[in-house]
């Protein structure tokens, strides 16, 4: 039963599902708004033009919102450490009159450098350092030094904590790491939105996982590369987003105040018909809808994947946000947003997703040494850009080989990374430090790369509750079963046959609880790998004739 549910949830995670058209008068949503996007006529001529685009040259990583955590994973009034571009921040969510707000500071007390994330939120809503009790307001101004007789207005300006703008948006905590014009946060643009998340008809299931051995750019490129889905994940729904000579990909991009966005679209109607038993019986003409596999990238962190009809409607969206926790690492945040009758328990979804992510984590981590080494090489040659040599290509475009029709979008993203990453905060310094420390030579052992406890359990309160409950059920079932056995042997008056179901029931519950508990820890074997390799859809094994 659980496996069936897992299968179902994986279909949700890969954007399976479509919406029936509601009528011709439906408004086309922003995925199909062509007026703001540049539709490609000649992709290759456009690509060479855009790879030197001044818009990318102007791209400023510090002038964007970054998602750092789901709000539901941070306890109310409990300062928590998050990381963004290799800088640790202390973040706390507070509640005043039913309104939630966020305090966010660089995680260093101005007094003697202690971590503010070890502190507490006071009753008045200030963040108080746990070391000597200095308190700070939302703007970082020091409002109390318990040991000082001076008034707060007399404190040195050096006593201020470094606060950063922070907001809650669609259940995520967002930080703005860069300078703000006139210190007026109301002038900042909104973070990117997923419209379906605000629609009450859709249920949202949120997931999180840290990847200490996968650079955030590699993770984003992986998410936007549907070709790997059928091999690494053995999931045929990825085919809806992959291009082929028959089903060409259309790539559009737009530049606006919110930054750079790319949309790729692949006709999915025929593919859908071929794999759907009911639709297969229909002719193309009789198909009730025109379905497109749509992938959107909102630089530099946000991706959505969905199948949409002509009106731009969908029943499922899989949304991703990749937090650039630092160079060579990342935090994966995703949401399955679907028209479901109920919200599946979060922990069930997390078991499915951990299993799904394990399937290609080692593969993506294994890209890290060659790709980051290529970046270092380009930086050595040209401090300004990863685009070291126009003829040879940049760090990624010079390293990778593009042969698939899907590479239209994959290659464009690589051009974007090559054009802009040298400007990513602290990237050059961290890359050089990683190289010096020998971290670009190989990847850590599988046990580290796939450590579900550190990467997920330790940061997910829902899964922690599940593990606690499983441990309780396991221990209770052991005690009850043992007590039944002892009592049956000692007391001849007890009818053992009548109550046989007691040990069976409790042993089953204990076994199930232990199986669930184990899913939150390192759980990989050669058998898993063999099973995954054998599960690749047969039609993908097309050996050259
Ligand atoms: S280090 Fe924070 S109050 Fe002293
Ligand atoms: Fe979880």
Largest β sheet strand count, sense and barrel closure: 8 strands, antiparallel
Q: Give the terminus-to-terminus CA distance.
A: 41 Å
Number-wise, the strands total 18
Number of domains: 3
Low-confidence stretches: 1-52
The CATH class of the largest domain turns out to be Alpha Beta
Rg, Å, rounded: 26 Å
Signal peptide: 1-19
Keywords: 2Fe-2S, Chloroplast, Iron, Iron-sulfur, Membrane, Metal-binding, Oxidoreductase, Plastid, Signal, Transit peptide, Transmembrane, Transmembrane helix
Protein name: Rieske domain-containing protein
Pfam families: PaO, Rieske
Brief summary of the model shown:
It is built from 15 helices and 18 strands.
Description:
The chain has 545 residues and is α+β, with helices and mostly antiparallel strands. The protein folds into three domains: 310 residues, Alpha-Beta Complex (Naphthalene 1,2-dioxygenase Alpha Subunit, Chain A, domain 1), CATH 3.90.380; 122 residues, Rieske Iron-sulfur Protein, CATH 2.102.10; 59 residues. The protein is 32% helix and 20% strand. The chain has an eight-stranded antiparallel β-sheet with strand order 1-13-14-15-16-17-18-12. A four-stranded antiparallel β-sheet has the order 6-7-8-9, with no helix packed on it. Strands 2-11-10 form a three-stranded antiparallel β-sheet, with no helix packed on it. Helix 1 packs across helix 8 and helix 8 crosses helix 10. The N terminus is likely disordered. The chain binds FE2/S2 (inorganic) cluster (FES) and fe (ii) ion. The site of fe (ii) ion (FE2) has 6 residues, from helix 8 and helix 13.
């Amino acid at each position: 039963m659980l496996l069936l549910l897992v299968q179902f949830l994986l279909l949700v995670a890969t954007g399976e599902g479509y919406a029936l058209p509601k009528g011709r008068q439906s408004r086309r949503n922003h995925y199909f708004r062509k007026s703001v996007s540049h539709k490609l006529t000649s992709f290759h001529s456009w690509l060479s033009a855009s790879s030197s685009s001044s818009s990318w040259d102007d791209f400023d990583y510090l002038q964007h919102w970054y998602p750092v955590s789901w709000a539901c994973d941070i306890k109310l009034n409990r300062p928590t450490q998050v990381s963004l571009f290799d800088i640790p921040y202390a973040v706390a969510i507070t509640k005043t009159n039913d309104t939630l707000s966020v305090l966010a500071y660089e995680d260093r007390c101005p007094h003697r450098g202690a971590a503010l994330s070890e502190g507490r939120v006071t009753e008045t809503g200030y963040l108080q350092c746990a070391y000597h009790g200095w308190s700070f307001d939302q703007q970082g101004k020091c409002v109390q030094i318990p040991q000082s007789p001076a008034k707060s207005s007399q404190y040195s300006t050096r006593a201020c904590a470094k606060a950063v703008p922070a907001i809650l948006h669609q259940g995520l905590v967002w930080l703005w790491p860069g300078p703000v014009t006139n210190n007026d946060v109301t002038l900042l643009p909104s973070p990117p939105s997923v419209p379906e998340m605000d629609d009450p008809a859709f249920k949202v299931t949120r997931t999180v996982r840290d990847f200490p051995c996968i650079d955030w750019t590699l993770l984003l490129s992986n998410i936007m590369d549907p070709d790997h889905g059928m091999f690494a994940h053995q999931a045929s729904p990825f085919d809806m987003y992959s291009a082929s000579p028959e089903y060409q990909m259309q790539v559009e991009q737009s530049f606006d105040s919110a930054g750079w966005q790319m949309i790729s679209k692949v006709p999915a109607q025929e593919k859908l018909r071929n794999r759907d038993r009911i639709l297969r019986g229909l002719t193309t003409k009789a198909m009730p809808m025109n379905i497109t596999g749509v992938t959107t990238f909102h630089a530099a962190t946000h991706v959505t994947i969905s199948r949409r009809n002509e009106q731009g409607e969908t029943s499922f969206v899989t949304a991703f946000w990749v937090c650039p926790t630092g160079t060579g690492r990342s935090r994966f945040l995703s949401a399955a947003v679907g028209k479901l009758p109920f919200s599946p328990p979060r922990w069930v979804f997390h078991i499915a997703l951990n299993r799904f992510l394990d399937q290609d984590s080692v593969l993506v981590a294994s890209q890290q040494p060659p790709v980051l080494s290529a970046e270092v090489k380009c930086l050595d040659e040209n401090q300004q850009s990863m685009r070291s040599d126009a003829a040879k290509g940049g760090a990624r475009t010079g390293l990778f080989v593009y042969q698939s029709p899907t590479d239209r979008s994959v290659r464009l993203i690589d051009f974007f990374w090559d054009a802009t990453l040298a400007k990513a905060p602290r990237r050059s310094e961290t890359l050089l430090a990683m190289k010096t420390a020998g971290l670009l030579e190989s990847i850590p052992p599988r046990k580290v790369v796939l450590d579900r406890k550190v990467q997920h359990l330790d940061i997910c309160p829902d899964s922690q509750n599940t593990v606690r409950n499983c441990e309780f059920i396991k221990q209770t079932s052991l005690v009850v079963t043992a007590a039944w056995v002892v009592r049956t042997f000692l007391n001849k008056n007890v009818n053992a046959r009548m109550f046989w179901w007691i040990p069976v029931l409790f042993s089953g519950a204990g076994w199930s609880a232990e199986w669930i508990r184990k899913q939150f820890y390192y759980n990989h074997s050669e058998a898993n790998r063999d099973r995954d390799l054998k599960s690749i859809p047969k039609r993908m094994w097309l050996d050259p004739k």
